[in-house]
Design brief:
This protein is 33% helix and 17% strand. The protein is an alpha/beta fold. The chain has a 4-stranded parallel sheet, sandwiched between helices.
Amino acid sequence: MEYLEGDGEPAIVGFACRYCAYAGEVKDVVKARLPKNVRIVDVLCSGKVDALYLLKAFEFGADGVFVAGCGDGQCHNEKGNVHAGQRVGHIKSLLNEIGIGADRLEMLKMSPEQCTDMKQAVMALSTKVKELGPNPVRHFVPPPAGRRG
């Protein structure tokens, strides 16, 4: 992951399950509908999103992060979305403890028919994060050598 900058808008990183976030649509079309300040990382299942990935997204400058997984009872990998939801809940608690804030992280559960609703959910997260202000750790983590932040 490269160091993120929001260019005036909050930098948002999303980890999107290929089975629900893009179902029935070409993923490039879904991504094109999202604002330019949103970067999507494709995953085979939301259950594969490790807690470290969520924390690293904030370390690399994300102001907000979301995990888009299948709706309840619809996961192609049985309980991947359940595990992702538990992981997100745990990291939200940790984000509060370290001063970043739980409101910067969201778990989006959606059925394949709701993939067009992802834009609305991401816009709501972006609005909430904009009200919170920039990621408080962004200024404490130096960008990689040769990059400015």
